[in-house]
């Protein structure tokens, strides 16, 4: 199944719900000329297993570094291992194997990264989306792995609701 169209006709929220209900696997791409940005969300059996946006300045290694979960030296070692010819493992898997971070903490940080990207994409009301069904390059060992789109949509709605309640009390985005 390939679906595509403008966001003004079918919003990202609606697309997430369709993919969740259909338990689809594939990649959703969202582009915005106005924002000069693009993002993608990977689905496996209706669950979100990966997300990225071009403007995201924090790849996983930066998220782990900023959270204090790994040191610069551990990251450098893991990146060197990943660059070796024939190394099939992802950076997070290498860091877990090295003992630099636990699997639980890695999952937590990956979830945080995915949520950040998805919440940004959910705020886009103009642009274009396309979903291409198919197998992903992402390894998914656990069939229940990933985030439930329904939970992401509920959290996004909660954040939007909270923001509308406090927005009139904040003098501007530069306020601390």
List the helices and strands and how they pair.
Blueprint: E1 2-6, H1 12-21, E2 26-32, E3 37-44, E4 47-53, H2 60-66, H3 72-83, H4 91-98, H5 103-122, E5 128-133, H6 149-167
Antiparallel strand pairs: 1-5, 2-3, 2-5, 3-4
Helix pairs in contact: 3-4
**Low-pLDDT sequence parts:** none
What pattern of helices and strands is seen along the backbone? EHEEEHHHHEH
Q: List how many beta strands DSSP finds.
A: 5
Helix content: 40-55%
Count of DSSP-assigned helices? 6
Shape call: globular
Q: What would you call the structural class? A: alpha+beta
- In this structure, how is the largest beta sheet organized? 5 strands, antiparallel
The mean pLDDT is 87
> How much of the sequence is in beta strands?
15-25%
Distance between the termini: 46 Å
Rg from C-alpha positions? 18 Å
Strand order of the largest sheet: 1-5-2-3-4
Structure description:
With 176 residues, this protein is α+β, with helices and mostly antiparallel strands. The protein contains six helices and five strands, in the order βαβββααααβα. It has a five-stranded antiparallel β-sheet. Strand 2 (26-32) and strand 3 form a beta hairpin. Helix 3 packs across helix 4. The longest helix is centred in the middle third of the chain and has 20 residues, at 103-122. It is globular. The termini are far apart. The model has no long low-confidence stretch (mean pLDDT 87).
